[in-house]
Design goal:
Structural class: mainly beta
Helix content: 10-25%
CATH superfamily: Immunoglobulins
CATH class: Mainly Beta
Number of domains: 1
Radius of gyration: 19 Å
CATH architecture: Sandwich
CATH topology: Immunoglobulin-like
Number of helices: 2
Distance between the termini: 38 Å
Number of strands: 17
Largest sheet: 8 strands, mixed
Length: 258
């Protein structure tokens, strides 16, 4: 397979940031529960950052040393953390979906996910959420879009925090299947004893002299079959895949009716 045309590790992308300790009254260290969820934007110098609510309301955010603290916008459900930067003919974007607590939004996360947030975008199909997670040794599906339309044959590079790297190509409908690697080295009883890692997907598209690069980043977990009885582990994954497939089917039917 040909080498990917960009340095995927250097592409602008999001990751969770460790919470900074604050000092409360009496000099005791601790965490400020009002500080919001911290995220880091890697290789994002000069980028504009915004948070998009489930109803697609946009709130500008300010980076401080590549770090941003995301606070709820009043409604719960999934929000989109978006960074964009344009320098000459190069247009870059980084998207990450995060769950925020708040008043019920009353809208499906698929509306936010399907909304165009940048010219080139990697859209989860569906996003692993609620009772389902991205797990190692399972397939995750995404649709690469350019200006809202599926991008046939798009090349997608995957890089994980555990050191795995691979390239994939989307089909004629822009759909790409990513087999998340079995690259965790620790296996302890219980999900909480096995911290997740991160994966970053990068896509690139050229239009004339213009170059578009986008990333999607998210966490993935060690496969439950490693720390649960085989039958239970498979049931957890199977149940999540069933829910995800049902969401994808409903989403496609809605688009076909339009």
């Amino acid at each position: 397979m040909a080498l990917f045309s960009i340095n995927a590790e250097a592409a602008m992308h999001w990751s969770p940031a460790p919470k900074e300790k604050s000092h409360g009254h009496g000099g005791h260290g601790g965490h400020d529960r009002h500080a919001g969820k911290p995220f880091l934007l890697h290789a994002g110098e000069g980028a504009e950052v915004q948070l998009m609510s489930p109803s697609k309301v946009v709130q500008p955010l300010t980076l401080e040393h590549g770090r941003v603290s995301v606070k709820a916008m009043g409604t719960g459900n999934y929000h989109a953390l978006v960074a964009k930067r344009s320098v000459g003919d190069l247009h870059e974007s980084a998207v990450r979906y995060i769950y925020m607590n708040g008043k019920p939004s009353g809208v499906s996360p698929s509306l936010l996910i399907g909304h165009e947030k940048s010219a080139l975008e990697i859209e989860p199909a569906p996003l692993a959420r609620e009772h389902w997670r991205y797990y190692s040794n399972t397939d995750a599906q995404f649709i690469v879009r350019f200006q809202g339309e599926p991008l046939a044959g798009a090349k997608v590079h995957m890089q994980t925090g555990n050191g795995s790297s691979a390239e994939f190509a989307a089909n004629t409908e822009g759909l790409v299947t990513i087999p998340l690697p079995e690259d965790f080295t620790y296996e302890k009883p219980g999900r909480m004893a096995n911290p997740p890692s991160e994966f970053v997907l990068t896509a690139e598209h050229h239009v004339g002299t213009e170059r578009h690069i986008t990333t999607f980043s998210y966490g993935y977990h060690i496969n439950p079959e490693h720390w649960q009885p085989t039958e239970l582990g498979l049931a957890v994954i199977g149940g999540g895949m069933l829910i995800g497939g049902f969401i994808t089917l409903r989403k496609r039917r809605r688009r076909e009716k339009k």
